[in-house]
Design brief:
globular; single chain; two-stranded antiparallel ribbon; 2 strands
Length: 164
């Protein structure tokens, strides 16, 4: 319910038990709204990830590899929007912990195919359970259908060709 803690804090909600703010600022830019929400979600996710020994970027890498192997480190860096030179050290740490595998690409021995190891899949699943619980508490201030629609809408916007 509304009393549930999110990231160590209670979500602030105004508007007499409706879960909606008393007033919506329609002049606030979409980017500013998304930045506020993103900042709050990251603050709520970080302690959950830390409890599993993961950083946000490690979680992002594991999540990306769960969807599909990366044919190269460069492709993975582009896919997740991370600096390719910093990705090598991140992957070194994940590989040393047995969470990802890097194997030479048979077609191009200079490239390494990166995939999620079984231990990485298990750790990702455990962390995701807690993150989904936090998200449900956040979305719990909305009617169920609206929360589902919000997630679907954000996914469509994130993957839209409008950004290309």
């Amino acid at each position: 319910g509304l009393g549930a803690r999110v990231g160590g804090r209670r979500p602030r909600v105004s508007g007499r038990g409706t879960g909606y703010p008393a007033r919506v600022d329609r002049d606030e830019d979409l980017g500013a709204l998304c930045a506020r929400i993103t900042r709050r979600l990251i603050e709520a996710e970080q302690p959950l990830l830390q409890a599993h020994g993961l950083t946000m970027w490690e979680y992002i890498v594991l999540s990306s590899l769960e969807r599909a192997d990366a044919p190269s480190q460069l492709v993975l860096a582009r896919r997740i929007g991370y600096d390719k030179t910093r990705l090598i050290a991140l992957l070194d740490g994940l590989e040393a912990r047995g969470l990802v595998r890097r194997v030479p690409d048979p077609a191009d021995r200079r490239a390494h195919v990166i995939s999620l190891a079984e231990a990485g899949s298990s750790l990702l699943g455990a962390a995701r359970v807690e993150i989904r619980g936090m998200e449900q508490r956040v979305l719990g201030v909305l009617p169920a259908q609206l929360g589902e629609r919000l997630r679907e809408t954000l996914a469509r916007l994130a993957d839209s060709e409008v950004w290309d």
